[in-house]
Amino acid sequence: MSLFVRDGVKHRIYKEELKEESKSIYGGTVCYLDKKPYNVLIASHIKPCIDCLKEHREDQAYDVDNGLLLSPTADSYFDKKDISFADDGTVLVGKNVAEAVRMDFEQMKLDESVLNERRKRYLEYHRRLFELKNGGKE
What we know:
Layout: H1 8-26, E1 42-45, H2 49-54, H3 58-61, E2 67-70, H4 72-79, E3 83-85, E4 91-93, H5 99-106, H6 117-134
């Protein structure tokens, strides 16, 4: 068994904190990207949880600012580093994203209200991974 296993209790607390943040900003639990409610929302790590745990940074692994509430579709692209976000919330779309999906993502944006300085630092980490996968800046 790996030493770098996500703590289920801490992860549930982390997800609840994201839901509370969403309620305080949007008045309900919604995807931070398209502002729509879903039956399932993913508490998506910006800096991957495994990277945090490998660095012995449990504080980062369960930091609400290291997370975004995303729809399952957006989370899938984000986790695979096929999308990322600029500091202004603009969606950066990678080379492996189909044109129709690219056009959808280009209509969306993260709001300034979720882009605090700590979250922007985590997004900088994610963008580096995105740029490595996608051959430089988009």
